[in-house]
């Protein structure tokens, strides 16, 4: 039995859970409330239940088979049974002038109740075998199991916050009953004319003192109303499909049947051709000065982002068979490659700054940069807009309709957020305006990257000037200011150094995700590290750099040691007994810059012939297509993971092997989705932007290339195009939430 002696421990752990705020989720925006209200009829409910119980054993068996089972693996932390969703909704019988149809509901039963099965069973007309599994003594758990449950729930809420599902508050109203903050959730299948309370009262004749039960939600077939976003998406994508078919047919007729020279054809009429855009996507021509290894880095970083999101989403889903194994995995050394995955976001921030300077320095004067600043921003915004807008529209509409399942609520939450906050995502302010309820939670990365891009001309103006001294002063000043500002902020607020840290919550500490993880100030230093290396690469462009073997070896060792230390630090700080404010503040302030420094050195070494086998791997042509698809993969992999998880009809089992298998599926889906959306949206948009605004190359190609001498706006467009490729999250991402 639980005892009162744990009061202090309970208070600390529940405060840990309560540190997160409840999301503003209006379910009526995604599920039609009228369809639930219109079918309710208390008298008809009683009539149908009595008929089912007394006269139709087979139909009763179907209702029972779809619901009411105690969760398996409670000792593993599983407090949920999802029943049989589709079996329940498929019940449709016409009996004695009654239209009996199934309704799927989830009910919550707080564990901290004193339940007498004898008093309940005497009220039942149902067979006793129905309750043979329902043993109330499973609620009488010991101290160890209780503490494990509290710890698992705290971890689960941190993981949910990380993937963009803001968990609900847990309130404890009765200190005499320490289990009142934990509930089991059971699926129940009832006639659609019944509310959950009416059904239970009719079947069990329950009094309020017998058993406390609350309704989580109910589902009926075809309960997703058509809204404006659905019609807009249907019209836009239908018109887009028609244009693509016509453009592709025109292209095939000219090039295959009439054998016309592509150079003589109308580029606008071919802009939506799948045939031409596919050739552009898969064709690669080496260019002098291109940073070949960047595509490999981008591809590996994107795979790390996706596998991190796969693991975290699997670990945070409600329908997990073995939650206790998640905690064991997270605090183990072997989880390090997942728990450290959020650091990969800083790879993209570093690449963003590096490519911005490398593709701009020496090709435009400071005066022309200021004169064409509106084009500098406009080209960048337009290069990101088409895919981002398409993803938002799909999340607000078609992704909500593409499938269904007992856990579809999490997809519905993402849909509702996009219908409500689509505009803040398109304005790149979601990391400040609505950080805990972002549309596409992993796009926090895009917001920060755009905000850094907005302020970059302050430094870029001096970098593109002819004086190296001025350029170096501006670059170093930018890095020092960002590091100083981030350090002062981190040491003042005192965040933990990991969102998944299991130690005690610090008093009066602001939310880590909102105030640190998606904060532009705390994430800016890697961008400025990248700018410095971009300038170094610019100065050494076309030159043969000679370095001694001893120096190269030393620099590689330093890069490996420093990056390994950054990764290993995640294992230390995530432990339950970790509590070192100073080290946390140091890590929060400098570990991301150290990681960016290591990545930038790797690029520098590979470009100048000191990368060895690493350069051979990263520069291999097989990464080119993944590099070009990386932005689309980043945007679409995350909502598709939610869709895939939402379709599950059985509890998911967490293990490393299962998670890797799911990653392979998520990765293949992401690549295919990115390929299609690039051909249909991104590639045509690139051609149109080039035609109407000038510069920038077409076909959606996303790799850094040497830029032609400045001719007004062309070079700036290319700079924006190169930099627009740095859009990996993360995650989480990644948001990117990521991890």
From TrEMBL:
Coiled coil: none annotated. The gene is LOC113522368. Residues 42-220 form the Nose resistant-to-fluoxetine protein N-terminal domain. The keyword Glycoprotein does not apply. It comes from Galleria mellonella. Residues 712-722 have a biased composition (Polar residues). Pfam families: Acyl_transf_3, NRF. Residues 695-722 are annotated as: Disordered. Keywords: Membrane, Transmembrane, Transmembrane helix. The keyword Transmembrane applies. InterPro entries: Acyl_transf_3_dom, Nose-resist-to-fluoxetine_N, O2_lipid_transport_reg. This is O-acyltransferase like protein-like. The chain crosses the membrane at residues 231-250, 297-316, 336-360, 381-399, 444-464, 471-495, 550-574, 594-619, 631-654, 660-681.
């Amino acid at each position: 039995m639980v005892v009162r002696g744990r009061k202090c421990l309970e208070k600390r752990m529940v405060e840990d859970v309560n540190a997160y705020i409840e999301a503003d989720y209006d379910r009526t925006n995604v599920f039609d409330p009228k369809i639930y209200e219109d079918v309710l009829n208390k008298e008809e409910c009683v009539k149908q239940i009595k008929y089912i119980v007394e006269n139709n054993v087979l139909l009763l068996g179907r209702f029972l088979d779809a619901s009411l089972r105690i969760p398996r693996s409670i000792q593993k932390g599983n407090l949920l049974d999802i029943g049989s969703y589709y079996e329940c909704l498929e019940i449709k019988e016409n009996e004695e002038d009654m239209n009996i149809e199934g309704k799927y509901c989830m009910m919550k039963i707080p564990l901290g109740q004193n339940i007498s099965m004898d008093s309940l069973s005497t009220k039942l007309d149902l067979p006793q075998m129905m309750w043979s599994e329902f043993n109330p003594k499973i609620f009488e758990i010991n101290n160890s199991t209780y503490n494990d449950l509290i710890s698992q729930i705290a971890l689960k809420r941190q993981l949910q916050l990380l993937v963009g599902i803001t968990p609900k508050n847990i309130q404890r109203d009765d200190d005499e009953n320490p289990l009142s903050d934990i509930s089991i959730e059971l699926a129940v299948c009832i006639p659609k004319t019944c509310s959950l309370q009416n059904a239970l009262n009719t079947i069990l004749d329950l009094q309020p003192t017998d058993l406390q039960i609350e309704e989580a939600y109910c589902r009926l077939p075809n309960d997703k109303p058509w809204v404006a976003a659905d019609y807009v998406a249907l019209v836009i994508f239908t018109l887009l499909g028609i244009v693509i078919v016509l453009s592709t047919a025109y292209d095939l007729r000219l090039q295959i049947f009439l054998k016309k020279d592509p150079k003589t054809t109308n580029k606008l009429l071919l802009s939506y051709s799948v045939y031409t855009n596919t050739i552009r996507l898969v064709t690669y021509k080496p260019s002098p000065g291109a940073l070949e290894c960047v595509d490999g880095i981008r591809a590996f970083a994107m795979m790390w982002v996706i596998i991190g999101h796969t693991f975290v989403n699997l670990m945070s889903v409600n329908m997990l068979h073995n939650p206790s194994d998640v905690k064991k995995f997270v605090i183990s050394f072997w989880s390090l490659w997942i728990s450290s995955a959020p650091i990969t976001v800083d790879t993209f921030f570093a690449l963003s700054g590096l490519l911005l300077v490398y593709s701009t320095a020496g090709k435009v004067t400071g005066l022309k940069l200021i004169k064409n600043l509106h084009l500098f921003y406009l080209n960048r915004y337009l290069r990101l807009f088409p895919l981002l807008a398409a993803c938002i529209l799909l999340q607000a509409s078609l992704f909500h309709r593409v499938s269904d399942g007992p856990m579809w609520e999490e997809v519905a939450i993402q849909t509702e957020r996009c219908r409500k906050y689509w505009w803040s995502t398109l304005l790149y302010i979601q990391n400040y305006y609505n950080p805990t309820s972002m549309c596409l939670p992993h796009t926090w990365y895009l917001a920060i990257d755009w905000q850094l891009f907005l302020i970059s001309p302050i430094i870029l103006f001096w970098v593109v000037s002819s004086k190296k001294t001025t350029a170096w002063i501006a670059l170093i000043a930018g890095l020092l200011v960002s590091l100083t500002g981030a350090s002062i902020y981190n040491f003042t607020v005192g965040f933990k150094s990991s969102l998944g840290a299991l130690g005690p919550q610090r008093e009066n500490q602001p939310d880590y995700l909102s105030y640190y993880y998606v904060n532009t100030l705390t994430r800016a230093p890697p961008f400025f590290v990248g700018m410095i290396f971009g300038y170094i690469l610019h100065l050494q462009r076309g030159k043969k750099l000679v370095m001694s073997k001893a120096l190269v070896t030393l620099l590689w060792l330093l890069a490996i040691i420093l990056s390994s230390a950054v990764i290993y630090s995640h294992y230390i700080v995530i432990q339950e007994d970790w509590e070192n404010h100073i080290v946390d503040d140091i890590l929060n302030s400098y570990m991301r810059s150290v990681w960016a420094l290591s990545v930038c050195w790797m690029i520098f070494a590979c470009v100048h012939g000191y990368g060895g086998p690493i350069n051979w791997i990263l520069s291999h042509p097989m990464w080119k297509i993944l590099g070009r698809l990386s932005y689309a993969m980043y945007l679409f992999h995350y909502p598709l993971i939610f869709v895939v998880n939402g379709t599950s009809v059985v509890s998911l089992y967490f293990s490393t092997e299962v998670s890797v298998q799911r990653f392979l599926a998520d990765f293949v889906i992401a690549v295919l989705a990115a390929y299609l959306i690039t051909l249909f949206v991104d590639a045509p948009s690139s051609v149109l932007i080039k035609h109407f605004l000038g510069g920038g190359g077409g076909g959606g190609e996303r790799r850094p290339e040497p830029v032609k001498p400045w001719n007004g706006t062309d070079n700036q467009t290319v700079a924006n195009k190169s930099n627009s490729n740095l859009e990996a999250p993360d995650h989480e991402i990644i948001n990117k939430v990521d991890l």
